[in-house]
């Protein structure tokens, strides 16, 4: 047979609880938009991968230290991150939004956060945004490793608000989580697949090529429809 590349299996990190992008289903399987996009792109491009739900900040660290080859985790493409990572073309539009308990009518703007406590997830753009306005509006921060515990802290009343990605927060609220949104999301956020800077260029190229193909053949829309239905 002709010389063939070793059949490399790429290790891809993801978040633990970030529905509808990645979440553990009742059968213990990981499901979601990111999971299905990666799978469809891998099939289209003919590469093998193994998905590792490490948590968001743990996956960032694993990628930066080359313990994993890539990351798909509803990860926002930001100028700061572009110094450490190479991103694919954007595949989903997002934005940070503030959520409060559905029984809380006292917080309808950032001004109302004075003297309050805000829950954030470590290493996220939501945490970075909260930090960027913390001094101006005078609130405390509670930091969590994952989104489920961050929401729980608001539901129990320990934190007054949480900063989370709009599509994820809206999906959770639609699924019955007792939180609500009182403001529009911050604009200008897009998700991308990431590799460590200067590493795995071939994987990044395959992701981009596969993304073009699954957009063209309808698979991308099918995946969005599966998880977002009429809201997409
Ligand atoms: N989009 C946000 C970020 O990149 C949150 C991602 C996540 O929590 N999985 O920081």
What are the low-pLDDT stretches, counting only 5+ consecutive residues below 50? Answer: none
CATH topology of the largest domain: D-Maltodextrin-Binding Protein, domain 2
Average predicted confidence as pLDDT: 96
- Ligand species: glutamine
SSE series: EEEHEHEEEEEHEHEHEEEHH
Radius of gyration: 18 Å
Please bin the fraction of helical residues.
25-40%
CATH superfamily of the largest domain: Periplasmic binding protein-like II
**Strand neighbour order, sheet with most strands:** 10-9-11-8-12
Number of helices: 7
Proportion of residues in β-strands: 15-25%
Family: Belongs to the binding-protein-dependent transport system permease family.
GO molecular function, one term: ligand-gated monoatomic ion channel activity
Protein name: Amino acid ABC transporter substrate-binding protein, PAAT family /amino acid ABC transporter membrane protein, PAAT family
Keywords: Amino-acid transport, Cell membrane, Membrane, Signal, Transmembrane, Transmembrane helix, Transport
Nutshell version of this structure?
By secondary structure, the protein is of the alpha/beta class.
